[in-house]
Design brief:
The complex is a heterodimer of chains A (316) and B (326). Chain A is mainly alpha-helical and 316 residues long. Chain A has helices at 12-30, 37-62, 70-87, 93-113, 119-141, 149-156, 165-183, 185-195, 197-202, 207-233, 245-254, 266-285, 290-308. The chains are: A mainly alpha (316), B mainly alpha (326).
Chain lengths: 316, 326
Amino acid sequence: MTPAVPRLLVRPEFLAFAFIGVMLLAGSLYSANFLSATYLLQQLQVAAFLGIIASGAMIVILLGHIDLSVPWVVTVGGMMSTAAAGWWDASLALPFGVLCGFLIGLVNGVGVAVLRIPSMIFTLGINAVAQGLMVLHTGGFAPQDKATPFMHWLSVEHFVLGIPNALFVWLIVGGAVAAMLARTPFGRYIYAIGNREAVAYLSGVDTRAVLIVCFAISGACSALAGVLLAGYSDKAYQAMGDAYLLPAIAAVVLGGTNILGGRGTYLGTVAGVILISLLQSILSVMQMPEAGRQIIYGCVIIAMLLVYGRGSRVQG
Amino acid sequence: MIELRLWISQRSGMLLAIALFVLMFTIYIGNHPAGLTVNVATTAANKGVLLALVAMAQTLPVLTGGLDLSVGMVFILCNCLASHLIIGSPFQVALGIAAVLATGIAAGAVSGAIVVYGRLQPIITTLATGAVYYGLALLLRPVPGGEIDTDLADFITYQLFDTVPTTLVLLAIVATAVWLPFRLSETGRGCLAVGSAEGAAFMSGVAIDRAKLLAYVLSGLLAAIAGLLLTFITFSGEASAPAGGTYTLNSIASVVIGGTSLFGGSGGIIGSIFGAFVLRTIEDLLFVFDLPPLWQPLFQGIVLLAAVSLGAGRVFRVRNRLELFG
C-alpha cells in the first residue's frame, strides 16, 4: 500500500526546514531584509553558538539522558579560556577552556554511568558545583576576563567570502558529530543504548564507556561554545550560558530527536537550531516585548511538536 | 515485625530525608546565636514551606513518570497575579485568592492536557508551557511591584497563638487536604500505577488519562498556593525568570532527596516536604557557620550533589549488573 503522503514529507527534518522557509517568507513580507545574504549569514553566525551546544546536547539526548549542566559549563569554557590567556599564554586559551568542559563532562559521565544517578539530577548538581567554582574564581582573585584576539577572530570575523568563522567552527563540530553518529560503530552504540541499554550491554557494548565519553563530548561542546561566546562579546562573564540550555533542548527536539533517546538525525538538529535562532531573531526584529516573545516561543514549540512529535497511544 | 521492616524499607528515602533534616536543623539551632526562638523558627518555616509547596507540586507529575519544568513559572505567574488581586475588602481578597488558585489549576490543566491528549513528552511540554507562563507573568508585572492586604500577609507569615509558625500549620492543612484524599483515591493510586508501568496500568483498566491529568492539575494548584505565599512574604510580585528556574530545579532536587523515584511509581509528598526543608537548612547552615560568602555557592553545590548521590549506594550492592538497567 502506498502511503497517501510521501514518506519524506512527514519526516520531522523536512517539516522543520519547511517551517524555516515559511518563517523567512512571512518575515520578508514584513521587511525585504529578511532574505538578504547579510541577514541570513548574521543569523547563521548567531545560530552557530547554539548549534555547537545542541550538538553535544543531542548526543546525550540520543542516549536517553539529558545534560542540565550546560549553562555553567558554557560559562566555565568562557572564563577558563580567558583566565588561561592571563595565566600562561593566549595560545592556550581555547584548548584549556575546552579541556575544562571536557573534564566536567567526564565527571557527569561517571556519575551517570558508574554511580547510576539519574542524569537529570546529577548534571544539575554538577551545574551548581561549576557555578560555585566560577563564583570563587571571579570573586577571589580578579582574573583576566578579556577575550584573546584569536577568540575574537574565531567568533566574529570572517576570512573567506564573508562567511563568519563561527559558522566554520559549527561546520567542523557538526560534521564530526554527524559522521560519528551515522558512520561509526560508536554512533551505532549511542542509538542502541538510547533504545535499550540492557540489550546494548548484553550485545557486548561497553555501555559505561560510551556514556562517559558522550557526556565528556557534550561538556567539551558547551565549553567550546562558551569560548566563542566570550570572543563574541569580548569578555567572559557570570551566567553567560543561562540563555542556552532550554533553546538547545528545544532545538534538538524540534529537529525530530526523541527526547527519550534512540531516534534522531543530525540534520534535524541543524534544522531545529536554525528554526529557534530565526524565531528569536524575527521576534526581536519585530520589536516584540519580552513577554510576547516568550509566549509565542512556547506556543510555536508546542504547535510544531503537536504536528509531528506526538508519541504513540498506550496499548499495553 | 516483618511488616514493620517492609514499611520502613518502602519509605527509606523519606525517613532518610527526615533524619537528615532533624540532624541539620539541630546543628543549625545549636549554633544559632539566638537559639530556638519563635522568630528563628518562623523565618526558617516561611522559607522552608515556600520551597516545600513547590516541591509538592513537582512530586505529583514525577509520580506518574513525568516531570513538570513549569512549576517555577506557575509559581511566579501566580505571585504576579496575586500582587494585583489580594487587596481591598475581605470579599475582594477572597475572590482574588480564588482567582489565583484557579489560574494555577488552569495552568496545570493546560500542561496536563497537552501531555495526555497531545501525547507530547512532559519534559518538553512543560518547558514550552513554562515559557508561556513566564511571558504571562511579565505581562502582569513588567516591573516588580504591587500592593497587598498587609493584615492577611502578617497573619500568614507570623505565628498562631505566638508559638506555632502559621505557614507550618498551612503546610499541614494543604498536605492533609490534598495529598491524603489523593493518595487514598482510586485516581491517586492510578497515578502511581501509571508511573510504575503505564502499559500494565492501562491493561488493568486504570483510567490513565484521568490519573495523569489530575496529577498536573493538582501540581498547578499547589504551585499557585506557593505563589500566594510568596506574595504574602514579599508583599509584592516580580516576574523573575531566574527565581522561577531556581525554584523548578530546587523542587526536583527536593523530590529526589525526599525519596521519590524520578522514574515514577514510588514516593510521596511527605518526603518532598522534608527534602525541601533539607535544602533550605543547608543554606541556613552556611549562614551560621559564617562561611565566606564567596564559598557559599560552591558548598551549596557540593552538598546538593552529595545529597542526590545518596541513592548511589545500591550500585555497589547489586550482584547482577543487568539489574541496573531497569
